[in-house]
Write the structure tokens for this entry.
Amino acid sequence: MPEAHIIGLGHYVPENIVTNDDLSELMDTSDQWIVDRTGIKERRFAALNQGPSDLAIPAVELAIDNAKINKEDIDFIIFATSTPDHYVPGSSCILQDKMNLNGIGALDIRVQCSGFVYGLSIAEQYIKSGQFNNILVIGAEVQSTAMDLTDRGRDTAVIFADGAGAAIISSQKLGGQILSTHLYSEGKYAKELWVESPSSSSRPTIDLAKINEGRHFLQMNGKEVFKHAVKRFPEVIIEGLEHNELSIADLDILIPHQANLRISKFIQKKLNLLDNQIFSNIHKYGNTTAASIPIAFSEALIQGKIYPGNIVALASFGSGFTWGSCIIKWVK
Ligand code: COA
């Protein structure tokens, strides 16, 4: 059976840096509050009229370069985003045309912060079945337009941000071999972190009253998210390792979804990891939802933190609630 390998990664963040002090000018918050509660010092916001497909392009180009393939070698596109360019068609199709990749299958997945791990899992199955040889998996978000940047939205507006990451998953035995993926969700918590409107179950899908109430912005029950995240992350990481007859002692680096530094610190303590065994860049980029893991993974490689023979774990938790892990062995 073919093996599924991650042979190239790339990332891109928009140029516009938004500091905590910048947000303090828009809402009643402070650098101290944001750093203490989330670990975030600054984040990037996309320029006017930049969608997730635009942010994805430089990330994809870098991933293709690093994979040493031609874009014509790509057989299939998986685009994970919770903030699509448009409701119809998906951002995978929008990106496909912008990058002249027409004529192959393109799939959007809406699994929020777990989107990249779910995307890897889908790609893994297609590669292992022999149907495709090179699959492009993207996580890209423009959250800045989906947040209420006033006092009313300050609990979410200081956390979420924009960015893109991409990976090429291939049957070539290079890079990181995907050993297994483990996916979960619990839809009963859907409303704990959601965007209510526009909604096709209401007529009209959105109206002025809903806009005035801010129901088209991301809403979060932060305490509930925190409580579940600190349980699910360690659980699914341990499950992934044990599935491969590995333990925490075998783990070289954990690249968690960059949800919140306090959540990462909790996982680190629970799993007894050293500082260099858990990657963090949330201070620079905030929580970029589906883009956070591929951005962090790409940066970890650029910073020389992953060596041949290393066991790498990716883990996610987010809206849905959804969560998952991916265990990788770095071969070259
Ligand atoms: N700046 C200043 N004060 C803020 C604020 C902000 N940006 N956002 C909320 N507050 C205030 C609240 O209004 C509240 O004020 P009050 O005590 O006068 O009512 C106070 O801070 C405490 O709010 P609370 O919601 O109890 O804070 P918390 O300790 O639960 O921290 C989060 C809030 C969001 C940081 C925290 O719940 C959290 O980290 N949750 C997980 C979020 C996450 O990781 N999401 C991503 C998942 S993918």
